Amino acid sequence: MSWIKDVYGTEKPIIAMCHLQAMPGDPYYDKGKGMKDVLDKARHDLLALQNGGVDAVMFSNEFSLPYLTKVRTETVACMARIIGELKDEISVPFGVNCLWDPIASLDLAAATDAKFIREIFTGVYASDFGLWNTNCGEVVRHQHEIGAENVRLMFNIVPEAAQYLVDRPIESIAKTTVFNCRPDVLCVSGATAGSATNPEILEKVKKTVPETAVFANTGCRVNTIEKFLSIADGAVVGTTFKIDGKFENLTDEARVREFMDTVKAFRDRK
Question: Which InterPro entries match (predicted)?
Answer without folding.
Answer: BtpA, RibuloseP-bd_barrel
